[in-house]
Amino acid sequence: MQRTYKTPPYAGRQSHGMSTEPLRFDTKIAVLLREDLETWQRLNVTAFLVSGLGTEVPEVVGEPYEDADGVPYLPMFRQPVLVFEGTEETLTAAHARVLSRSLPRAVFTGDLFATGNDRDNRAAVRAVPTGALDLVGLAVYGPRNAVDKVLKGARMHP
Prior knowledge:
Elements: E1 27-34, H1 39-56, E2 65-66, E3 72-73, E4 81-86, H2 88-101, E5 105-109, H3 118-126, E6 135-143, H4 144-150, E7 155-156
Parallel strand pairs: 1-4
Antiparallel strand pairs: 1-6, 2-3, 4-7, 5-6
Helix pairs in contact: 2-4
């Protein structure tokens, strides 16, 4: 399912010299979550996964924000993050496809719910062979068509 955003949060503000035309991106940022996660897990996994994309793929990050009083805010992604869900099998297949396409990706495994810091998170992933990872989330960035192929079988998160 493909969504077109008619009014992105950064478009339509003529007073600051920005165009009112909708922006359409050639790329896509997507997160795929295993459908059996609890709400707090979905939120936590999504936040962790997308943080990796911004550090390794700097072009996904826009310019810093500033309010009318001149108070600065950190930059955010320049485009929407689409969140999908699927079965364990869908996630496993998407993981294989993202690896075969060599797209920028981040993974979150079930083991990470039991760790409490970055060092232990990395050790937990490193301890498991690729094909045996207990995947609960995957983030991917790349050309829209390639990301759509990676996500085949997934559905938009409700």
